[in-house]
Design goal:
two-stranded parallel sheet, alpha+beta, 33% helix, single chain, 70 residues, 2 helices
Length: 70
Amino acid sequence: MSRFNVSKVAVLGAGVMGAQIAAHLVNVKVPVVLFDLPAKEGPKNGIVSKAVDGLKNSSPRRWAWPTMRH
């Protein structure tokens, strides 16, 4: 079996599933860019920011490495 090295991942959709997939990848030290549609009100990246904040405050903590950008 050949190895495939992943150097960076984009996750489309910052809902529950997308955010947790991104968190799992971050936890194995894969850089992640998390995308979602722009929020209709407030900051344009508000949906992604809310998802990342939810991961930071979850128990058990799902996000251990500070490499996920939003």
